[in-house]
Specification:
There is one protein chain. The chain has four helices and 32 strands. The chain is mainly β and 410 residues long. The strands form six sheets. It has a 16-stranded antiparallel beta sheet that branches. Strand 26 and strand 27 form a beta hairpin.
């Protein structure tokens, strides 16, 4: 099965930065900004333009109850929903994102073992899922480690992350040899653990990041050259000024399907190469910033609305320094929906005169909008129009009236 991107959780956008679960501690809060989030899904940690970790799992996912500070478990969360998650890391913060995906054929390297613990007794909790009491028999077992269950000497289920590690005195970063402890696995278990199973920790390569994402571009038109390659007319949306398109860089081709409420993107091809880059009919080695470009790609399976994603793996050789980019147009500052006048709001895509008047009236009555997504929903924009607001609009901080009502899941 080809990789399918099923959702994105962005941290720093939720109404609450975190919640506290008894016995587990704080879980960071994020907002589902694309697609949907399903408990147990595989995930990558993205920070700025770097992929810091892969093969994470949404082992625990909860949300706050309406009109209460209590939390409840949730198996699925949709577009613009706030969720609090455990993935085996404690460093998730504003600006980070979890890229959620499915891929049944490409998994982590499980050929090298770091340690093995015997499962003494499993337990289950409605909020936090499976816990197992273990005794470390050899090697090491750490918080956040990639692990697998073995039964009768054979692996059962998919690899999982250690979401919590506890000793008699509380949380542990690492379980000492010969000492019993409790491992929190949450809802990652495809097969419920049993007494007598072995929990094995796998070794992972040590890198500060796994991949650098250079940029993305949306395909608007394709010319087939008839030699196994195409020239694609692409656009880099406003607000993505750090995008870089370089000849020789690896690229993936993604094909979105569905709507923003449940959008999925299938990875049609990977490890492609950018054969050429041109802007305004002028060929160049590197093009940066936003605007319209043409790209040469070593594939013929390119369609309108596909997405080209350029990336550099951590082990890739460094390309020669690109020439300096000259006469690049200055970036257009985003429109502040809480301060902009009517003509400025009218520049945003989808903003008809009626919607501009509605936005000004709503802003006057309620004092402003908490974020760009709430602005788009309030004035009646379609989901794809709301997505295009990102990078083109912003919402400055405004005092919000306390209503006691939380935004409903869409």
């Amino acid at each position: 099965m080809t990789e399918v991107r099923v959702g994105l959780i962005e941290f720093g956008k939720a109404l609450n930065a975190s919640v506290t679960l008894p016995g587990l501690g704080e879980l960071p809060g994020g907002q589902v900004s694309a697609g949907r989030a399903a408990r147990g899904a595989r995930a990558r940690l993205k920070r700025a333009d770097r992929i810091l970790a892969d093969n994470l799992r949404l082992g625990i996912m909860v949300r706050k109850k309406f009109f209460s500070s209590d939390v409840e478990p949730v198996t699925d969360a949709g577009f613009l929903k706030d969720v609090f998650v455990a993935v085996g890391r404690t460093d998730l913060g504003p600006g980070d994102a979890l890229e959620l995906y499915t891929d049944d054929t490409v998994g982590p390297d499980t050929s090298r073992f770091l340690g093995t613990a015997a499962v003494l007794a499993p337990a289950y909790d409605q909020l936090t899922g499976f816990h197992v009491q273990v005794r470390l028999e050899r090697g090491v077992l750490r918080f956040g480690a990639l692990t697998g269950l073995f039964r009768g000497g054979r692996p059962v289920g998919q690899p999982m992350r250690v979401l919590g590690l506890f000793g008699p005195a509380g949380p542990l970063p690492e379980l000492p040899a010969g000492q019993p402890g409790t491992v929190l696995l949450g809802f990652q278990c495809d097969v419920p653990p049993m007494a007598g199973d072995a929990l094995t920790a796998y070794e992972e390569p040590s890198h500060d990041h796994l991949e650098r994402r250079e940029g993305t571009a949306h395909v608007h038109g394709v010319t087939d050259l008839g030699n196994g390659s195409v020239v694609a007319a692409v656009e880099v949306p406003d607000g993505r000024t750090n995008n870089l398109l370089t000849v020789g860089t690896r690229a993936r081709l993604l094909r979105p399907v569905g709507t923003t409420f449940n959008e999925r993107s299938t990875v049609i091809a990977t490890d492609l190469r950018i054969l050429s880059v041109a802007r305004g009919g002028v060929a160049m080695r590197t093009a940066a910033g936003t605007g319209v470009f043409t790209l040469g790609l070593a594939t013929r399976d390119v369609r309108q609305n596909d997405i080209v994603e350029t990336y550099v793996p951590v082990d890739a050789p460094v390309l020669a320094p690109p020439p300096a980019v000259v006469s690049a147009p200055p970036p257009v500052p985003p429109v502040d929906v809480n301060a902009a006048a009517g003509p400025e709001l009218a520049r945003l895509q989808g903003m008809t005169p009626e919607r501009v008047n509605q936005a000004l009236e709503l802003r006057r009555r309620q004092g402003g909008f908490p974020d760009v997504e709430a602005f788009g929903v309030a004035v009646g924009l379609q989901p794809h129009e709301i997505v295009r607001l990102r990078g083109r609009a912003t919402a400055s901080q405004v005092p919000q009236r306390e209503t006691g009502v939380r935004q409903l899941d869409i």
